[in-house]
Each structure stands twice: as C-alpha cells, then as structure tokens.
Amino acid sequence: MDSSRSTSSSPTMASPRPSADAAPRKSASSPDPSPANRPGENSVSAEPKHKTRSSPALKPPVSYLRLVWEFILVLAFLPFHFVLFALVPSKRWRRSWTLLEASMMPAVKRIMGAMDLCGFKISARRTDKEPSRWWLRVRYGVEFEWVEGLRGDFVQGVVDDKEVQPAERVGMYSWRRKNAPSSSAGHREGDGLVGLYLHGGAYTHNSAHPGASSSSIPSKLFKKQPRFSSMHTAEYRLLPDYPVPAALQDAAAVYLSLLRRGIRGEQIVLLGDSSGGHLALALTRWIKDTFASGKTSGDGWTLEQPAGLVLFSPWADPSHSFLGHTPDSYIPRKNSCDYLFEVGAFRLHLVSSLLGSHPESFVKSPYMSPGAADVPSGTFATFPPCFVHYGTGERCQEEGERLVRNLRRDGVRVEVVVTEDTPHDLLLLEMIWNKKQIKQIWDGAVDFVQTL
C-alpha cells in the first residue's frame, strides 16, 4: 500500500503538486468577481461563496507517531480477532462473514481510518509527472501517453470555471490486445469495445497508474471480457488543489481524445468504482448537456454518448455528507461495519474540498448528487444502459439503491448486482473475500458488457 504525507489541509491525501502548465487556482474563499457568469450556477448566483473548512487531520510529528501506533494495534489485534471470531462466531461484525473476512475487516478499517486521521494518501501519484514508459511496458504491458486537455468550445457548462482551468495535458494509460497496433493519433480500434476507467478514492486517493490498487479493476475486466479491444484510464487531478470541475475536465479531455481517433461513442464503455463511478455519471451528464447545447462535433468527429456505464459501489450522494453543515449535526450513513472512515468532521471537509468555491447548494446538483432522494424526474432521460454493484454492508448502500431507482424511473436499462453483507468497493478486497461473491460481481459486469 503506497502512502505519502499530506502537506495540504486535506484529511485524506497529500495533494499532487500543481502542474507547471496549469493555471493556479484561487483560494476557495476568494471573492468571485462574476459569480453570475459561471455556467450551470445561474440559479444560485446570488448565494455567498462556499468556504472550504480547515482540515481536522493530525499534523506532524503527532501524525507520524499516531500512524505507527495504529499499525502496532493492527498487528496486535489480528491474532486476537482471529481467535475471538473462531471461538465465538456471534461476535463477528456480520454473521455471514467467514473467519478470514471477519478477522481482516477490523484491520482494514483501522488502517483506512488511520490514513485519513493522519492526513496520508493511498496509491496517489503526481498527475503532472510522466512515468517510465519502458517500465510500464515491461512490468505491466501498459502504454502511457499525454492527451490534449479540454479546449475551445467544449469548455462550457459545468466545466467552464474561472478558478479551475483545464489542464494543458492529461495522462492516459492503455491496455491493448497483443495483436493491436501501437497507440497513435490516427489509431482506430475497429469494432471492438473501448473501456475508459475512472479510479475511485474519494477524489483524493489512488491513481490511474497500473500499479495502483484500484487499477486491478480495469486490468482484470479487460482480461475477462474479450469484447474490449482496449482499456484506458485517465489520470485526473485530485483534491484539495483541484476541486470541481477539475476531475471532470480531465475525464472529458480523455473521452474526447478517444473520439478524435475515430472511436465511436457506441464503442466506449465508462467504468468507475466509488468516486470514479460518481465521475463517470458526471461525465455522461456533461456529454448529454454539451450535445443538447448544440456543440455536437469537432474536426472530423462527432460528440456521442457512451455505449454504457459500469459502476462499482458508486459514491452517488455527497449531499448526504453535507446535510448538517456542521460536524455536530452530521448524520452518519448506515453499516458501521464498513471500512470507510465515517467521522463527521472529515466527511464534511471532504465534500467541502470537493465543492471548492461553489456555493453550498451546488452539492444538490445532479452532477454532484445523482443518487439523492430528491433528484427531479427526467434527470437521467436518454442515459445509456448501466450496470451497478453495491453491497448491503457498505456505507454507500442506500445511495446505490436510490441511484438505481432514479435511473429506472427515467427509463434507463439498469442491471444490478447486490452482494449480501459486503463492504464498500469489494473488488479491492478480492484477496481476502470469498470467491463466490467476487465472481458474482465479475460475472455481472462481463455479462452486461456483452449486451452492449
């Protein structure tokens, strides 16, 4: 598990150093000279600017000492929990969990909580730094390239922000079949499906790099579903330096780069886990809104919506984390057995960082909270088919259920796999979880893609 120390005010990550070719962002509390002109916010332009909260994370050297102490506790309690849950199965957090699952979950939960509490990130990388292309080919069989950032008339709507400018370039990693030609601007994928994966990690952790823990998802799905001729991942910018709409700008840039190569929208499948699922939904909405605005084509290519979405444990309702606006009035999500760090001050700071300079009401936007209970009817009209997985033991269960209801209400074809008593983003725990439930998820995703 890769980690590094945060030097920012984020509770969960060390922010990537801003790219030299990216315009600097003003402070989230800086006054906006023309808030009424920000696209997508006309209805709330009179609201005061949202102010980002200071991080509740521990600071050095206390954070280092606390992290060491937490790892000592992990090692100490592992054998204790193993013996306890073996002798007294009723003490397991979920009765259906195997001995291995029950023994490992307290350790996973403590590690994840310690990383957030101490302000460390997991598997994240500098988004402006190029990796070793030779090592990527030798170690992972993956290609890396820079694609042009979002430009011109496509910088409109929610991605047009005076304080968060599009990056000059965005990193993209690609898996290809062995007999496929090398990547180039003129490369065409034929009739095969093309995956675009957006990694999870609460917009703070993880990376598109194939060595990141979350990259096991696109890598394995690419191997399991032969209809994919290629699989790509977008190295989008992370919090706290780059709030909304930075990640969406980068994801849109990679999506458009695929269209410029002659790949049709009906070939592209968007995939994402956790916050990556949230970003995939936002990207689909941006494509829909941009097309509706009349911007339908570029130089020799046409803007088209993707063939479908594959969402694993999508974080679909950040507005729930912002209900009370103060830690004292925060309402925790159900399923406390999940490993996600659910402390009011930290969750509020996360969503606060995500909003950046946007007004607080923006958290209720369909771009931000598509799984909220009060999403208007018709919000998902014309969305492509979706596959959604969530577990009944995870913090995102209820918002996953609401997302599915919202999609189906608007006529979207949705295939759902629900795994009993499983924690968040189960595919990341594949090494310790029972193979039957893991297989259930993979089979559901593979079968769904087969129908596209």
From TrEMBL:
Signal peptide segment: none
MF terms (GO), sorted A to Z: hydrolase activity
InterPro entries attached to this UniProt entry: AB_hydrolase_3, AB_hydrolase_fold, GDXG_lipolytic_enzyme
UniProt keyword Repeat present: no
Regions crossing the membrane: 67-88
Domain Alpha/beta hydrolase fold-3: 196-426
Origin: domain of life: Eukaryota
Swiss-Prot/TrEMBL keywords: Hydrolase, Membrane, Transmembrane, Transmembrane helix
Compositional bias per record (Low complexity), positions renumbered to this chain: 1-31
Region entry Disordered, spans: 1-57
Protein name: Alpha/beta hydrolase fold-4 domain containing protein
